[in-house]
Specification:
- The protein is mainly α and 97 residues long.
- The radius of gyration is 20 Å and the shape is elongated.
Length: 97
C-alpha cells in the first residue's frame, strides 16, 4: 500500500522562501499580518484616547474614538475567524493525508 502525499498540506506548511533566516509558513505570515494590523489599530485608538484625555473632548473626537474602537472589535473578530477557520482546514487536510 502506497502512502500518497497531499500537496495542499505540503503547501500549507512550506516555508515562504528558501532563505533559512526568513522562515515561517504562509499561515504564520497570515497570523503575523493580522497581529501587525491589530497593533496599528490599537496605536490609533491609543492616540485618540490620549487626545480625549488631554482635553480634546469634542464630540467629533469622541465619535472618532468610538468608531476606531468598533473597528478594532471588527478586526479582532475577523482575525480570530480567519485564523481559526484556516487552522481547522489545515487540520482536516492533515488528517486526510
Amino acid at each position: 500500500m502506497s502512502e500518497s502525499i497531499n500537496p495542499l498540506s505540503m503547501m500549507a506548511t512550506a516555508p515562504l522562501s528558501s532563505n533559512k533566516n526568513a522562515g515561517g509558513s504562509w499561515y504564520e505570515a497570515m497570523a503575523e499580518a493580522w497581529g501587525q494590523t491589530l497593533d496599528r489599530q490599537a496605536a490609533d485608538i491609543e492616540s485618540l484616547a490620549d487626545k480625549v484625555s488631554g482635553g480634546d473632548d469634542k464630540p467629533a473626537t469622541v465619535t472618532q474614538l468610538t468608531a476606531e474602537s468598533l473597528k478594532m472589535g471588527f478586526l479582532s473578530n475577523s482575525s480570530h475567524t480567519a485564523l481559526s477557520s484556516t487552522g481547522e482546514a489545515l487540520k482536516t487536510m492533515a488528517q486526510k493525508s
